[in-house]
Amino acid sequence: MEEKEISQAVIGRLPRYYRYLGDLKAAHVERISSQELSELMNVTASQIRQDFNNFGGFGQQGYGYNVDYLHEEIGKLLGLNTDHHLIIIGAGNLGQALANYVNFEKRGFIVKGIFDINPALYGKQLRGIQVKPMEEVIDFVDQNDIDIVVLTIPKNGAVDVTGQLVKHGVKAIWNFAHVDLDVPEDVIVENVHLSDSLMKLSYKINRRKREENGGKNKSVR
Amino acid sequence: MEEKEISQAVIGRLPRYYRYLGDLKAAHVERISSQELSELMNVTASQIRQDFNNFGGFGQQGYGYNVDYLHEEIGKLLGLNTDHHLIIIGAGNLGQALANYVNFEKRGFIVKGIFDINPALYGKQLRGIQVKPMEEVIDFVDQNDIDIVVLTIPKNGAVDVTGQLVKHGVKAIWNFAHVDLDVPEDVIVENVHLSDSLMKLSYKINRRKREENGGKNKSVR
Lengths: 221, 221
Hints:
2 copies of one chain form a homodimer. By secondary structure, chain A is α/β, with parallel strands linked by helices. Chain A contains 9 helices and 9 strands. Chain A has helices at residues 8-26, 34-41, 45-53, 67-77, 93-99, 102-106, 137-143, 155-167, 194-212; strands at 31-32, 65-66, 84-89, 109-116, 125-126, 129-133, 148-151, 172-175, 188-191. In chain A, the strands form 2 sheets. In chain A, strands 5-6-4-3-7-8-9 form a 7-stranded mixed sheet. In chain A, β7 (148-151), α8 and β8 form a beta-alpha-beta unit. In chain A, α1 crosses α4. The N and C termini of chain A lie far apart (52 Å). Residues 217-221 of chain A have low confidence and may be disordered. Chains A and B meet through α1, α4, α5 and α9 of A and α1, α4, α5 and α9 of B.
């Protein structure tokens, strides 16, 4: 049975649906129409229906959707019904922030190991896990069932260790390093380029300024 | 003079161009063709030309692009030729990670203040800036020229403080809180929803598993 190819845009919207449905569930809402969900989420009802149709539609639309069911089904699509084992490479502020983020664990993302090159951090406890020397990461990956590697180290280190990790069977990387990793096709990389995000914000601020100045800035026609 | 409406997708790609051009510049590459850039960045040459045409094209294509010039022009579009003053609300691990990120400052994103509700953090120095009590943030915004507010606090707090900030003239928010902020149209919000990103990764892992199992997972038709 071939699965339909789902567009990146649809995939990108699934976590947001999941988030809103979780809030609705917490507020004890039992059913919701695509129109109501549309107003809440500020997207069109037709986009919601189209998105859901990629996955079979999730139930009758006349009646509205069953919130519990929809939340659970989208959660299953997102792989949240099984645990994922993570290791974090880089125990700096960002690595520590991610290690300490309780909600990840609640959703089944369990941190199994944390590694750093800085000896001052060895043995430091983050949510009950001791930071280990970077030299041990490959052995650790070989000996444990690790689903996701989180990279919170500078780009040169990230490129080097990615090559090693991939050779040792790592298939999914959550990459915070400021570089696009070059990996074989069967390795999944999800990037969080914080600088890119900040620059997008800055672009929009700058564009607003140009508009306010009525196009006086010559660099943009 | 009306500026052409640039699509979100194009805007989203600009920081990546800027990043690659910065690397090329550091490697003393003087000119590059759209074809070469295309191979380096793993996008089509025609997409590069189309993207650049939104901004006037950036010079002759037969010759290739002048790397320095292109880097600078895209930098200007991204607003990197002027400083931006930031405050960070939330001095936990993530706020500290962002405060300590040297590259932001290099690009003109200058942290002017850091605020938290936790008294244990008051007075703590982050890159020479003392963490201040949350109660002082609105006065600080009133008395200083702040371009961007970075929110690294939980969602309830984020919603509350956003209302206040907007009333006091804040026009751009870099939002790490796990919520979509409801702001007036002239306020720019750039979201970094880390959980959404992790769930996208998890979706892809899950899809690969289903494909390997040949569609045995009943939850997906």
